[in-house]
Amino acid sequence: MTSSTHTSPSGAPSTSTRVLDALAGIIAELAGERALETSLAASLESLRSALGAEEAAIWLLSAAGMVRAWGSGPEQVGGDAVRSIIADERWDSDGVVAARISGGEQRSGALVVRVTRALEPEERTLVSAVANILAPELAHAEKSRRLEVEVEVRTAEIDRERRFTDKIIDSLPVGLYVIDREFRIQAWNRKRETGMQGVSREEALGRTIFEILHRQPSDMLRREFDDVFATGRIQEYQMESLATGELRTYRISKIPMRLGDSGVTHVITIGEDVTDWKEAQTRFAHAEKLAAIGQLAAGVMHEINNPLATIAAIAESLQFKVDDAAKAGAVFSPDVHEYLHIIDNEVSRCKQIVDGLLDFSRPKLPLRERVDLNEVVQRTMLLLKHHVRFKRLTVNTELASDIPRVPKASAEQLVQVLMALLLNAMDAMVDRRGAVTIRTIRGPTAGEGVIAEVSDQGSGIPRSELTKIFEPFYTTKDAGKGTGLGLSICYGIVQDHGGRLEVDSVVGQGSTFRVFLPSVDL
After folding, report:
1. Structural domains of the chain in order of their starting residue, each with its CATH number
2. What is this structure's pTM?
3. Of 188, 195, 338, 373, which residue is least crowded by CB atoms under 10 Å?
4. Residues near 425 by beta carbon (within 8 Å), at least 6 away in sequence
């Protein structure tokens, strides 16, 4: 394109001018802001117009063969013809002018023009120039297309992995959710949707855990999560719930989660129903320790029966001496007779307690007596009023007047239970001000027809220990201050009466032990 002629003798633009104008327009079009598809279509149309061609098209090599990717004018040149032109490198044949398009990793292709006349050298050069200009544009488009395909493939792969992971999490027989440092829920599995509260995933995601678990104290939840965020330690504890209509035990695990090398960013909470497991463990532990308790009871029987017999004999002898002295005119305080009577009763009760230890490892005869729980409380308080340690405390008694009786019960064993609970409450109140309260309440059903509560304002029991305190030989008291048998024996006695023993406790605020017993009408 070195001709300097700009116009023909007739005044029409020269070939060189027409070619230069067409090339400038195509360059401007491809350099513009329009989409590549639009720019290619416009460029092919400009080329076809400048050459007066019937067809201008871009052909690219694909897995299926040569494909007409873009074109201007009706398709007249077929894929086989284009492939033959490229293979034989016959770039000007039978009215077809073609120029190879290639560059870098770009697939082989050609710019093909169908003409009805022989093109001038400048016009053939235009075809080659446009093909050279198109090569990097198409290479870039190809790379972009490949990148888009890779992104789509990777996105689809990630989506499949996410769905697979979600399926695994949803299939777990545990409730699982994840919160971030703003306490907002980021994951909520299917078990949580169909679990105790039945909150859907859509409703839970993005909201704070306090909005969803509104039945649990928000301050307690916040403290538990803050501890995991701060320490990075796993927290595990058990809790009981009646949300399903029956008492179920759940093991709650709070697990720290880190994104990257930073601190704890999320907390995973897993809730597992361990009611059956707990019952099996309890039966196993109970059976395992029965032998030890039986041996202990046998030793206790042997060691203390003789001292008890001596105490009983001396008390009886003192009673005779007092009676003889009274007949002789001596005057004694009424407390003397009361104290001797209490000694005699307590010796008898000690023997029953020792026998009760043996009951852990041998069958017991059914209890037949109907017992008034209020009378049991009054008997317990009568015994405790002489206890030195209780003189330092305020003990409140709140007895419901309309409670039914407990069937097939032992008043002595129930006194033993309430006395043990009151003594524990007293131990919890060491160096603390406050009161101990014992009350009786009418229960909601015949199976839980009467309830006795012992509440203190003591130091409380840590949540991690609440499920262990009824185990034999487990104690939270200092060494030498407890055998760990008191609550275990109480638990067994209450179970033998067809009831259950529960505890609620908050560290620093105190504990409440509840004895649930079956009842019958008076």
Report:
1. 15-147 (3.30.450.40), 173-273 (3.30.450.20), 275-363 (no CATH), 367-522 (3.30.565.10)
2. 0.40
3. 338
4. 436, 454, 455, 456, 458, 511, 513
